[in-house]
Amino acid sequence: LRQSALDNLSLFTKQKKATRESPCLTQIKRKRELTNRQFDAEKDDPKEVWEIVLDVSHSDMLDYTPGDAIGILPENDPEEVSEILLKLGLSGTEEISESLTASDCLLKICDI
User: Fold this and answer.
1) Backbone angles phi, psi at 64, to 5 degrees
2) Could you read off the pLDDT of 41-76 as tens digits, one per residue?
3) 85, 106 in Cβ contact below 8 A?
4) Phi, psi torsion values for 50, nearest 5 degrees
5) SS3 helix, strand, coil % of the chain, rounded to 5?
């Protein structure tokens, strides 16, 4: 390896705090809907509000301060994605765009 590659590897392995470029990935520990889904679309706001508790017990990379942001990157159930692909007669490897397959689209982008 070239020295610059070794330097980058060293920076990566010594990183102590999650960043936008190197986020701390975790699982949802618990979620609870706070809104009432029984609403009149003419009168009420159809937004959903959720309380989400994340499991960060395994991470020493988090150093939260007021004003910090969190990103939620949900994925659909892979079994549901497989069922949809099967019903559509697709393998999942079909390209939707230059860098997106049908499987990735259903898994990471579509709301199913």
Assistant:
1) -80, 135
2) 566 666 778 888 888 776 676 777 787 777 777 889
3) yes
4) -125, 145
5) 30, 15, 55
